[in-house]
Design goal:
Blueprint (H helix, E strand, L loop, with lengths): L1 E9 H6 L6 H17 L3 E6 L7 E6 L2 E6 L7 E10 L3 H10 L7 E6 L7
Antiparallel strand pairs: 1-5, 1-6, 2-5, 3-4
Length: 119
């Protein structure tokens, strides 16, 4: 079964990505995690995302497109990246989520894929 491991990070963690004294530890932890997923044959994809201010939110209301710069919600933690995994069940997905470096000081959401049906 496929799951998304959604990594929610604080502003501090986003800043650690580029801070000269923090970036090696930050990226090293995620690199090790991705390597472990690959060695287990569980990874199906994933990516880090730019900081929330780089995002743009689009809504369609009454046929009109409304565009907002930045994140949709102003929250303590924002989506920083994701891993797509293929594992036997939710328990295995939760085990991988607990191993994610972002779980230590952020939040990890595990969400199963919903198969798209051909209509």
């Amino acid at each position: 079964m496929q799951y998304a491991i959604l990594v929610y990070e604080s502003e501090t963690n986003f800043n650690n990505r580029t801070d000269e004294q923090q970036k090696d530890a930050y990226w090293g932890a995620f690199s090790s995690y991705a390597k472990a997923l690959a060695e287990a044959g569980a990874i199906a994809g994933g990516a880090a995302l730019y900081q929330p201010h780089a995002g743009t939110t689009v809504r369609l209301r009454d046929g009109q497109r409304h565009v907002q710069d930045g994140p949709y919600a102003d929250t303590k933690e924002q989506l920083g990246g994701f891993f797509l995994i293929d594992v036997p069940d939710l328990d295995a997905a939760l085990d991988w989520a607990a191993r994610c470096p972002g779980a230590a000081d952020g939040a990890i959401e595990v969400r199963p894929f919903l198969p798209m049906t051909q209509g």
